[in-house]
Amino acid sequence: MVKDDVVLERLIRLRDEIAYLQEESSRTHSLHEYVENIRLRKAVERSLQVAVEICLDIGRRIIARERFRYPEDNQDVFRILAEEGIISGELLSSLLNMARFRNLIVHDYARIDDARDYALLKRHLEDFIAFADAVRVYLEDE
Question: What domains, with CATH codes, occur in the chain?
Fold first, then answer.
């Protein structure tokens, strides 16, 4: 793949979202603290959503440029990247969960689960980092 400024721009934006989320994660020490702070919850939910959207944008961009098969839905974007060897099978599982989270937060927002969101904040930010690293490796290999 030739240098793609759109992907590079999205990677920078993803880095910024990850940095914000890491900062909030380090400042938030309990689920109770998270649940009681509505401003924090709303900001984290939005930032997680944006981070997932960025990953999907990057994936769709790579798929289109490389003329991989067309994704049927958001989860399929990540499946295709795994099929093409861009992301690992282990990372795929986490990213499929992220796509489900995105769909829930966008379309079924009445069912937002603060405990699940807190768990994403505390234990899954490295999945975004792993995705960005995999994309960087792919870009460098091209």
Answer: 5-141 (1.20.120.580)
